[in-house]
Amino acid sequence: MFGNMISNMMVKPGQSPLFDSPEAHGLDYENIEFQAEDGTTLRGWLIKGGEDKVIVQSHFGVQCNRGGWTPKGHGPITPWKEDIQFLRQAKHFVEEGYSFLMYDLRGHGESDLGPTPWVSWGPEEAKDVLAAVDFATERFPQASIGLLSICMGAASTTYAYGRENGLTNRTQIKAMVAVQPLLYTCFIDALGMPGFLARAGERVSNERLGFDMSEPNFIDNAAQVSVPTMVVQNQNDPWTKMDMVQEYFDALKVEKELKMLDIEKSRFAAYNWVGTHSAEVRSWFDRFM
Predict the structure, then answer these.
(1) What pTM was estimated for this model as a whole?
(2) Which residues pair with 116 in a beta bridge?
(3) pLDDT band at residue 274 under the 50/70/90 scheme
(4) Number of domains observed in the structure of the chain
(5) Which residues contact 126 (CB under 8 A, 6 or more apart)?
(6) Dist CA 211 CA 174 (whole Å)
(7) Helix (H, G, I), strand (E, B) or coil at 217
């Protein structure tokens, strides 16, 4: 019983119904649909701006989707009290001449489940990042592409750089912003969950996914990231370990910047910061795109 409950918290899909829309923000957009290499259908929005610069956003996992995160349906105890609207950053980028591609990772929002119908924390979702970049490339063959990759999105993107015929071969990508990349094992340790509960959950999750969740490590692929990368991290985030973030940053072999935020003691504060300080995010992309 405990194992299923803990595993559901970590890997159960479908916990992120779409709650926002581009119309609510006055944005011109198109509903889009494309497939990953394993046939999984992914859905999203293409927010229309300029033709020469495109941002591909990959969201954080489990309780998120392309539109962001909402506390609705999560009861009185939530990590953040207000909607985190990712369309805020989309609006900012579009006003500055970018187009902005927002899509749901498999098992999130309106995208289909993959052949492995659970959230893998990056190894499976890496296929979705590749598909989204390929869609953007086909739509905008002359454009520079920037990757805005948030938490599990950052892990997935880094795994995608390590794949055969991965993102290193997508030469239109010019820059990345990785917001709070997080290893599963680091998250579990930071939560302070009793060992017997963590082990019970891991046994169920490992059986569901078909691999040991403690083994994949996207930091092993960080050296293969081939574009300038800014890593953003809230130094007051209680759900991570700063040594892990530093290890990821140190493993990057490209032009890079570590932007440490001193904001509210919540992991979600940095997710919200992206929308309230979009110009600071955009300034990194402006340098290279």
Answers:
(1) 0.97
(2) none
(3) very high
(4) 1
(5) 156, 157, 159, 160, 163, 166
(6) 33
(7) coil
Identify the CATH number of the domain in which residue 123 sits.
3.40.50.1820
Q: Which run of H or of E encompasses 47?
A: strand 41-47
> Per-residue confidence at 1, pLDDT binned at 50, 70, 90?
confident
The Cα 191–Cα 185 span in angstroms is: 10
Report yes or no: 108 and 61 within 8 Å, Cβ to Cβ.
yes
CA–CA gap between residue 96 and residue 286 (Å, rounded): 10
Residues 6+ apart with CB under 8 A from 68: 19, 20, 59, 83, 84, 85, 86, 87, 271, 275
> What is d(CA 233, CA 245) in angstroms, rounded to the nearest whole number?
8
Element (DSSP H or E) covering residue 11: helix 2-11
Sequential DSSP letters for 56-112: EEEPPSSS-BTTEE--TTS-S--S-SS-EETHHHHHHHHHTT-EEEEEPPTTSTTSP
Q: Comparing C-alpha atoms, which of 176, 181, 259 is closest to residue 218?
A: 181
Tell me the residue range of the domain where 50 lies: 2-288
CA atoms within 13 A on the CB side of 111: 39
Burial class (CB in 10 A: 0-12, 13-18, 19+), 48: middle
Tokens of residue 181, six digits: 């990349």
101, two tokens: 């591609």
